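ERR on first pass: missing label on line 2. Operator R.T. fixed the label and resubmitted. Corrected input:
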Amino acid sequence: MTRRETLLDAAIALFAEKGYNGTSTSEIVEKAGVAQGTLFYHFKNKEGMLLTILENILNEYLQDMEEVASVTQSGLMTVENLIRCSTHFRQTRSLELLVLMRDFPADLIKPDSPQMMFIIEFFKRFYDLFKNAIDRGQKDGSIRKISSEKYTHILLGMLSGMDRHILLGPLPTPALTEEIVSFCCSALSPPGIDPVSHERRS
Amino acid sequence: MTRRETLLDAAIALFAEKGYNGTSTSEIVEKAGVAQGTLFYHFKNKEGMLLTILENILNEYLQDMEEVASVTQSGLMTVENLIRCSTHFRQTRSLELLVLMRDFPADLIKPDSPQMMFIIEFFKRFYDLFKNAIDRGQKDGSIRKISSEKYTHILLGMLSGMDRHILLGPLPTPALTEEIVSFCCSALSPPGIDPVSHERRS
Amino acid sequence: MTRRETLLDAAIALFAEKGYNGTSTSEIVEKAGVAQGTLFYHFKNKEGMLLTILENILNEYLQDMEEVASVTQSGLMTVENLIRCSTHFRQTRSLELLVLMRDFPADLIKPDSPQMMFIIEFFKRFYDLFKNAIDRGQKDGSIRKISSEKYTHILLGMLSGMDRHILLGPLPTPALTEEIVSFCCSALSPPGIDPVSHERRS
Amino acid sequence: MTRRETLLDAAIALFAEKGYNGTSTSEIVEKAGVAQGTLFYHFKNKEGMLLTILENILNEYLQDMEEVASVTQSGLMTVENLIRCSTHFRQTRSLELLVLMRDFPADLIKPDSPQMMFIIEFFKRFYDLFKNAIDRGQKDGSIRKISSEKYTHILLGMLSGMDRHILLGPLPTPALTEEIVSFCCSALSPPGIDPVSHERRS
DNA sequence: CATGAATGAGCTTTCATTCAT
DNA sequence: GATGAATGAAAGCTCATTCAT
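pass 2 clean. output:
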């Protein structure tokens, strides 16, 4: 593993545990076992580390999600599987996701900065994934007639909220994946049709 | 307005805008128009200000919610109105809520500290509010048979997620209150019964 | 007890325990159960409290010692009894003596200030007490021929050193009074004459 | 001279002159001609500087004394030479000794801290040095039959008291070394034997 | 006499960053 | 590529003191 990667791993662990502001560069280099100067040789500054971490995780997140969305199936099934993918991602990449949740939106990401542009761009593509799935579901009859814009916002808010609740909340939380899927499908399925997709699955 | 209140208001505005860590005590006293020492006369330290703000907002939040829950009605209606109350609170107290969302769980609130006890206590009562409503709904037939524990976690995660998405998210968001209510009611109502309670309301 | 006395007592206890610099005026007023302003009503400032305490203790100390010295007896006996008096004073007024030992010479007592004049005046009288006794002892034959100036300095240094060693030293110390007396008398008695004055006493 | 040494020298001079509490870190770095941060790069904190100074001086002090004690000679001669060594140390290292005398026992050295352990350990070894010499002197007949424990305490208290009296006292003091030696030897020698060892010396 | 809210200068300390090697 | 000594701005906080009541 290169020194750069060692540094990133150390930063991810520390940012996840103590937050960006709660972590000093000294702690990072100590945990990584390199000298102070090395950090600033490989990264422009401390903020550069955070941005690198966030961009990496967001790109991988989006890639996984877009792959799921590219499979041909009903709109509702796409939404279901996006939810499952998102949950799975949270379970496998909880450390990086903690960094994201703790420190974004961070004070250090200035409005109109390239970094903010990147973040907004990411959120838009994330938004589009769900929006397109819902639109398709309304055409193929798997999703009831509701405002796809508004319901997309609800799904986005809900999913990130669940991640936060589970990873950062003060209350111990049971496994919830399929309940979240059911919850959303009940709300999205056309009236009278009871979604049992998660039973069909397995 | 006393100096203490002036200071709290200044801190709320700045914490909401720039976060706790991004705000210096100098900025607070400058905005409040008092001397540095005055802050530390009225509060133990900077963290004491944050705690005061958080305790105030959480207490008022809980009070509003418990008042809503105390009205006799069906379990589902109670859930609906809790959601509306929560949304209304977000709209009227967005500044304080921003402070809460930005800076909790903060690294500065140590596990097992009295502060953390207070926060956990608050979350438990918040949890119980929804849990009791769902349990009652399952008895009175207004809510389908699901795990009330799990669905309570989903509602909590969802509501805080929506607050964050709307108040802190990088995407502009339309008004969503009744859609959130519908979304949840669809997921909670017994199968086959389409919830239209929010139309009945008005 | 007047508020002024209450404040002095609180200050003595705290200065003895934590030193002048380690004690804040807030602590003093809290322990005394009065308001901040009261301290500054009764004393010019914090330093004024210390000076008052030091002057009181030094005056009483000197008074006791001068009374002992005024009794007609041999020079050596006077020295002996001065030592015993000093020791007794340490045992009965250890708190005030701790204040003196911890905080004098304090940085706050400026050279050539009236306070310093007072302190120097005190030391001179203290010095004279021993010096006169030794001089008298050399005349009456109870004390050997040595430099009374130098031996006075030795006695002064020794006595204050023993006080410090016993009251502030890190090592537990046994009762030493008569040994100190013997030690000094052996050094002061004319050669060949073994002092047993502390046996004669009792 | 390294920056670390420069800083230590500046601190010694200032602590000796104005005391630990009376000296600000700004003064130290100014006197040393380095930046504020440099102090905290080389030392954990201000207290760390004091501890470093104290440990250095105590170690050297003890080393000198133990070297003196290791020379084979009568018990009384050992005591004499320990006194001379102590006096010589005070004369050559008065600055560091002033720091020690002004600021120890300092409120900042917590009971049971490693620092306090170190200090107590030092005092014990210092104590043993004199105790062993007296015990040996009682065996070889050069020292009278007295409690070696008690007389050791007296010697320790006396020597530190003389240091304080001479270095910190408000009265000008003449040279006293041989008088202190005589004083102690008279008190320690067996009755009837007049010690003139300091004349034999030279 | 007594109060206590208010002050602000000054303190110690942290930490991201630089740069000569 | 890598180092780590050095930096200095900025932070949170303490505390003796003042003064209107």
